[in-house]
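hey m, so remember when u said the tokens were messed up on ur end? i reran from scratch. heres the input so u can diff it against urs
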Amino acid sequence: MASLSDVFTESERTNWLKAWLAIDIAKSGLELFVDNAPKILHSNINNAVLSSGSVACSCCHIANLLKCPSRGICKKREAYGLCISMHDTALKQPRQCPASVCNKVFVEIAKQHRYPDPSWKNTVANDWASSPWQIAKVYFPPDGYTENRSAQDTDFNGIVSFIMNCKHFNNMFSFPICPGKTYQPCLLTKTRAIGRVVRHSSTCKITDTDLQDIFTTLTGLLTDRKCLANELAAQEAVRKLAKLQTDVLKLKTDEIVELLEAAQNVLKKVANITETAVDEIRIYMENCRKDMDTFKQELSEHTGKCIQEIDENRRKFTESNYEQSCKDFQRRLMAHYNGTSSSVSLSNLDQSLDKRITDIYSTPKIHRIEIEKDGKRVKREQALTYKQIFYTGVNSNRRIYLQGEPGSGKSAFSAKLVHDWSHGIQLSSATPSEITAFDDVSTIQKIKFLFFITLRDSRGQTDVTQMIKKQLIDTTFSEDERADVYTLFVKIMNTEICLVLREGLDEWVPRDGSNLTEPCMAGFQNETCTILTTSRPWKLADERIKNSHIDILLEIEGISNPYAFSKNIIRCLIDHSKDLEESVIKFKSFVKDRKLKSLSSSPMLYTFVICTWVNTIEEEEHLKESSLCALYTTLLERLCKKANSTTGYFNNSNPPPVHFFSSTSYLQPNIAHLDKLAEVACKLLFSSERESTIVFSDITLSNYFSPDEFTLRKTFALTAGILTNRKDKSRTGSSNSFVHKTVQEFLAAYHIACNTYIIDDVRSRYLKLNNTSYLEISQVLTFLCGINISAANKLSALMNQYDVIHCDEYEYRNDDDTCYIGNGPCTFQRIIESGIREAVANQQEGIQLTLSHFNIDQSNIRELHGIWPTDTCNAHVLRVYQPRNYFLRSPARGESKSHFEFNLSSCHTLRQLYLSGSGILLRDTASSVSSEFPVCIVLNNARPVQSADTPPALTSIEHICLESVTCSSTCLRSLFSTLLTLNHKVRCALKYVITACVEESDIGTNAVIETGLENQFKMQSLENDCPGLWEALHGLNIKSLCLEFVYLNHQELFWQFLSSLTLEKLSVKMDLDIPSLCKGLDGRNLNDLSLSWSYEFQDWTANNLELLSECLSSLIQLETLSMSVRGDSPSLWEALRGLNIKSLSLSLEYRRGGLTESLSKFLSSLTQLKTLSISVFEDKKTQSVGDSPWSVYQESESEAGNVGRFYKGLWRVFVEKA
């Protein structure tokens, strides 16, 4: 190493050398920044110039684009003389670009120049299409840069000139780029002046004061906050400048030599400088070179002896050091988790009241959700061990998702998992009596590293590795240690068994412009890394999260044993002098009396109830309400009391803003604070700036308050505990959030209830952000249902519009004619059900929430039946499943209700109807008579005699499936009559449908029926026909009837049905005996008949053929006949001779022997025939094992002759007909 102070004897010359090196360092900090700019500039110019179909040009010289003369470029002796510099040959004369591209590029380059005289001599226009740097050189000084190809081989003056002359850099500095004169010179102007002063100094001396100014100017430029402050190369240059300024920058000998050679070249150009400086540099360089030669020789000899020994020691040290580093990393992580995750707040009322997770934790109710092949999600067995979560059989689950509603225990489960990993050794030694569920600690002890990150604290970040660095490494290790730990972390990701626990996917928002549904796991190996993600269900309903990306889906629904959980909580709260068992029994009785047991699905709310009960245990009255709104009102009141214990009441002269505030004591004095916080909660929640909706800075928060009230409101919110504030290294200072997201959602709903016009803003801004935005505000809708049902009705209608779009894009397509109930109710229906329950709990009237996709079963029929009358005009899909023996009881009032009626008369937008279950009766009209069936579906509201103006029901229906339902023949008749009037195709599947009639009412009929345009009716796959079915079909307005694979039990009723129709077209693809067929067809006014048999005509009797001939002859209107037959019977063709048909279509099975004479005569007898279509199929027989290839070949050759004779026969008929 060497020092610059060793070169010169004069300090001012040393200063000059330092300034020279400072400029070189500053250039290195600007190189990457400048090197990227030409690429962007090149791309922008191409985008502006190259239109659709045009291509870049590489045949124009810069002289072709410049007019002659051009100032400062052309040398022209006379006005009309020849240019002897730029345009000196015929090929270099001014002209237009053949591709009409280069002239446009020329103009765009000039537009980007700050001044009117670009340095055109520097550039080669032929390379503009391929070399961005050729464009950049136009902005350099005019001389000396023709050979430059990058920032690295460009001097400091050229780089600074590029920045100053090119408008591309206008917005990349915090100051305006200007040269001085009328303005104060900018940093770039000062920087360029420094380069010129140092390079052209006549004395090669710089004073101490000037040197400090140089360092100040260069450092100021490199730390400009707009861009350069974020450039790694620029910041590295700043660090080197600081060391150079304080004489602690040590240079290698070869670096000193290189610097002095450059300085010496400059000194030789200075005329009036003494030889002393040159001699001093020369002598110092010679000594340096001698020292370098000696050192290299000694180093080479020593290196040869030590390299093997060093490698061996390095290997041993690396292995040992890695293992030790891993153990230290584990220890630090466990210590971090022990301080941050092993204790949880007991209640949101008091965040400081925290307890060890092991003291209050109770076994969660976690079920595995099976994702079937068709996408259906079915709840399966309860998970009680870590092995059930992390393994399926012997295979590891690498991508695990745990979903749960707000407050259901997701965070507590994460904390317990982290605690068990951190304290695995202690837990594994516990006695069996102390162990309950999730006691298989050995399963998670196989995980070497657990990285626990909260996604709400990483909003705007997309890379999990960066989240781990910010949340774990940066908070666990000192700044000096972090670089080594980052390196270690990268190796751990690639080699060790890891678990990444991502908490709160629904609270994470990627940075603007990113379409990621979840953070990126780049760097982690699939073979060694397991990812466990917790989220609310709506987030996992995003179709972009593919089922194939989920190894196991789990759902947490609160706690398995509410009694044990309440005992744990009460133990932590009551005084030791009180009897624990007695207190738990009293609380259990309180929960039963208030009907609050359902809240055990939300441990957060259940804990709140417990805490409230304990705090008011001496009072006569405890919680009286079981609604969410009432609970959160009580929560708000307790929080407000912490900040201001002044009591106040709402009364007639000062009515409450919402009804359940009326009995509070601490809200009225603080209502101004609450109203403002509710407004902020709403605006943040519905902000388009998604990264700051949940976690937000003071700057963001201040946007919603005036300067005078900001401190006051924030202090109140923090004191009350409505807002929380914590240090955040990724932000400036600290970050804020509401104490729980549901509190923010409750306040937002309260604000909307008081200002219903906001709903229009929600539609115009928030709901249009993405196709699942409407699901993110589900909890707001639930709260709004309890506060202001009118506003909730309006909001649900908006949300339903987006749900219809979402469902139409991804709804299940039914292809197998089964009554598909789907994955259960869709997410939006669950939201509506929750809202209905909340509205009922708050005794709201006028519940008219909007829903278009109904999926009804015994668990939700009460809620959905209540809104059905107002939603019939919106319904697109109705699925009802109801077994007959299911006893329906109202859980709210204990009163039984065994009958629900759904009227379809106004369902003009209903596209799909699925009814399944023996408890369903399908009626054609409403009836006041009670039914033995739990569910009745009514097709028409009025009696059979309706007015002409009454629109038919189900005008948009496309698919119907009836499975195991009961309906009358008149109802089926009404249904099919309606379908025959529609101008589109409808498919109706009957599966074990019981048609009520006088006899045989217990027969389950199967059939698939299609109706279409012009009164088309197709029945196929009929089994177990009953009299009621034929009664329903009797006399329908069917013009075209198709029967396929129909198996009859009641032939006489079938023929009566057929006789009752005024048919124009009939197609029969079924095996019927000839007498019955002739009986049904005789004398009909058919003009189109299609018959198909599966058995051969050779088996028919002569009597049957005679009947068939007479029958077809009686069809005097028949013009078109189609027949598909197996085999060939001369008697059949004889029976059909002489028909007066105009069109014939035959599908024949080819048999050896060619065309029979009887078929030929039959075809010749059709004197009115105009159109003939014949298709031939062959019933191939399987070759026996003993057949030889040669015999097969001979047979095939023989067959070829038969086929030829067959078609020759057909041709002969055609010729005769012609």
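this time it looks ok to me. The CA atoms of residues 756 and 950 lie 37 Å apart. if urs says something different then somethings off w ur setup not the seq
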